[in-house]
Specification:
The structure holds 2 protein chains of 2 kinds.
Chain A (H helix, E strand, L loop, with lengths): L10 H22 L2 H8 L3 H13 L12 H14 L6 H13 L17 H14 L2 H5 L3 H11 L16 H13 L5 H4 L2 H6 L18 H13 L8 H9 L20 H12 L3 H12 L8 H6 L15 H4 L1 H7 L10 H12 L6 E2 L6 E2 H15 L26 E2 L4 E2 H13 L1
Antiparallel strand pairs in A: 1-2, 3-4
Chain B lengths: L9 H7 L4 H9 L1 H15 L3 H14 L4 H14 L4 H14 L4 H14 L5 H11 L4 H28 L6 H10 L11 H12 L4 H9 L7
Helix pairs in contact in B: 1-3, 2-3, 4-5, 5-7, 6-7, 8-9, 9-11, 10-11, 11-12
The chains are: A mainly alpha, B mainly alpha.
């Protein structure tokens, strides 16, 4: 090799070095300032975030025309963020939001981006999660479950996957939004489930992560969606979980945060998409053990008949009730009961450090990375990821973490979530109770 | 919101396809609906879809990561069929020259290769990208995609030839082919050789007639 030959850095390298230098600057800043300034930097700026979020909700009117199709998303991102911070909105705002979302409901089922717009799986997911986050009888009863079911059936493709809207694109996102909604509303059945597992399996790549469509690159967002969906339909044992783990652990970079794909840049939103994968993995302990055992024994990790019976974390409790939708309706609920038998496989404190020091803005809101602007999407997923990280050492989904599990002051602690749906745990329970009995 | 009687309103609609700024702002304020509406008009007017590709190109310039635009492009390309192949490969190449990791562009490119063909130069293209930036994981993924797709078709066609020559398959082969079946394939294929032909017809659409012909011509005793 010619020693005088120097390769100039590639685009990937240049961009990565720039981000690293900005991030490390922020970490160095922390260690160089006096103690009282330090504690400000380590603190979650709750009041500022609430202010930023509440203003966003109030302004969801004419001034938001660019994101007109995204208003249900904005409702969810904002309401969920407020709930994570342990706060809530006033009655007027709550009622206005319920009314608005009701007007987004299509007469034939599903929710569109705004009143009169075509129903779409993503906005349906957002609207329903937003309504669950508001909670209460008025909010939950505004959801026409029968019509939602009809809409989901219409979005189902013969191949097994789902389309985002009439004649829309088919991908793992569509599968997750459909299955998540059906599950949380307790309307998930064999008709909706059939073939979904095959489609998602075909999206697990050679890297171990999951792509949006068969053949595409392994991607954090789709990996969360794919894994959560497989859990919800009781087929998670069919995924190669060991190679999925092997892929996702290397997505946490020196910055502490996560990248979405190999050799791409860190982004605060992956705190949830990738961090959430770890939260799910922790509950799949027995299936993973079995897959590892089979690998050691020289077999294929996914062909074991024992696996099929351990399947979906309902292992010991059994999944023997095969009557239609009852078969699937308790998966989400029972998932919570599985203790987290293993320590988190990611560095929880490093992730929290990235979120608080690099994504958080002192004036309120969260961003992708230093240099980017804040927005509600990043605020939602940075906070969701922060919650996941804070509770990652807790054996049970809602048992309060030890102080050492929380980066910064203990007052930074957020509300716990249900990692399959990304709604606040208590609010999930309220909704589950409501939909199971109505 | 959407008119029921398209034919009666034909005349004014040609204008609606035009690239006015009003229309542009509609496309980003109300995505799914407006693109859907546009597709209805394009069909009703039997519009020139090559022109439509040019229109999408302009719109995509400022919005290379917009789901609706890429979905619309796929719809148009599907209608044009293999007429669109080189245009689509050029288009994705152009987008990737600005952002070599654009997820939508790669997915679209894979769809084009899968449905319309054009594989011949793909590995060379990946090689070029990797020479520019060896860390481009999207390009690595594409190399794998290329290899896996081509290899699977090659492996299956080899298996088919072997079966026609009297090869008795083990359960492993049967399972492997079974895993490749999609729900929409004719599941009444009772023997492996006809199943292989069905799968090949699906995975290798360029030669769908050939695989159907092979299925017809299978020797009587084939497993």
């Amino acid at each position: 090799m010619d020693s005088s030959e120097t390769q100039s850095p590639t685009v990937t390298q240049r961009e990565q070095w720039m981000v690293e230098s900005q991030v490390f600057q922020m970490y160095e800043l922390l260690s160089s300032v006096p103690r009282n300034a330090q504690s400000v930097l380590l603190e979650l700026q709750r009041d500022k975030h609430i202010e930023f979020l509440t203003n966003g909700l109030r302004q969801l009117g004419p001034s938001f025309c660019v994101l007109d199709a995204n208003r249900p998303w904005l409702c969810y991102w904002i309401l969920h963020s407020i709930a994570l911070l342990g706060d809530s909105v006033d009655d007027e705002l709550e009622n206005n939001t319920i009314d608005f979302l009701s007007r987004c409901q299509d007469p034939n089922g599903g929710y569109g981006g705004g009143p009169g717009q075509m129903p779409h799986l993503a906005t349906t997911y957002a609207a329903i999660n937003a309504l669950i986050t508001l909670g209460g009888h008025r909010s939950l009863s505004s959801i026409n479950r029968g019509k939602v079911y009809t809409f989901l059936r219409r979005m189902k493709d013969p191949s097994g996957a789902f389309r985002m809207h009439d004649a829309g694109e088919m991908d793992v996102r569509a599968c997750y939004t459909a299955i998540s909604v059906a599950s949380v509303l307790t309307i998930l059945d064999d008709e909706l489930v059939k073939g979904v597992g095959n489609f998602i399996l075909s999206c697990q790549t050679y890297e171990g992560g999951i792509s949006g469509e068969p053949g595409s690159e392994a991607h954090g967002g789709y990996t969360f969606c794919g894994l959560a969906t497989m859990v919800l339909i009781g087929e998670v044992n069919r995924l190669d979980l060991t190679s999925l783990i092997d892929w996702v652990v290397f997505r946490q970079g020196v910055e502490g945060g996560f990248q979405g794909r190999t050799n791409k840049l860190v982004d605060g939103c992956y705190s949830f998409w990738q961090g959430g994968v770890f939260a799910l993995i922790q509950k799949l302990h027995s299936i993973i053990e079995e897959q590892l055992r089979l690998l050691d024994a020289g077999g294929s990790a996914i062909d074991s008949p024992q696996l099929a019976s351990i399947s979906c974390h309902s292992g010991k409790r059994g999944l023997h009730d095969t009557s239609g939708s009852a078969k699937f309706s308790n998966i989400g609920f029972n998932f919570l009961k599985e203790p987290a038998e293993m320590e988190p496989l990611f560095h929880s404190i490093a992730l929290q450090q990235y979120i608080i020091l690099c994504s958080q803005l002192q004036e309120g809101g969260f961003r992708d990375k230093p240099g980017k602007h804040r927005d509600y999407y990043h605020t939602c997923y940075c906070l969701s990821g922060l919650s996941v990280a804070q509770y990652s050492y807790s054996k049970d989904a809602d048992s309060p973490p030890l102080p050492r599990a929380v980066f910064g002051p203990y007052s930074n602690l957020l509300e716990p979530i249900h990692p399959l749906y990304n709604v606040i745990l208590d609010l999930y329970h309220e909704a589950h109770e409501f939909f199971s009995t109505s | 919101m959407f008119p029921n009687h398209i034919s009666s309103r034909r005349q004014g609609w040609g204008e609606l396809l035009g690239n006015s700024s009003l229309l542009s702002s509609m496309y980003f304020s109300c995505p799914s609906n407006v693109w859907h509406f546009r597709r209805l008009i394009l069909e009703a007017l039997n519009a020139d879809l090559h022109e439509e590709l040019n229109f999408i190109k302009k719109v995509a310039n400022g919005n290379p990561k917009n789901y609706q635009i890429w979905h619309h492009r796929r719809w148009v390309a599907e209608k044009l069929g293999s007429d669109a192949t080189s245009k689509e490969l050029d288009f994705t190449k152009k987008i990737l020259s600005l952002d070599a990791k654009n997820y939508h562009a790669w997915s679209h490119r894979q769809w084009v290769l899968q449905e319309l063909g054009g594989w011949e130069d793909e590995l060379d293209y990946c090689k070029q990208l990797l020479e520019d930036d060896i860390f481009n994981n999207s390009a690595w993924n594409q190399v794998c995609f290329n290899t896996c797709q081509r290899n699977t078709v090659f492996a299956l066609s080899t298996l088919l030839d072997l079966l026609c020559h009297g090869f008795q398959p083990s359960q492993d082969f049967i399972n492997a082919v079974d895993a490749l079946k999609t729900p929409d394939l004719d599941l009444s294929d009772s023997n492996l050789a006809t199943a292989v032909c069905s799968v090949l017809g699906h995975m290798d659409p360029m030669r769908v007639n050939y695989w159907a012909w092979r299925k017809n011509k299978l020797p009587a005793q084939t497993a």
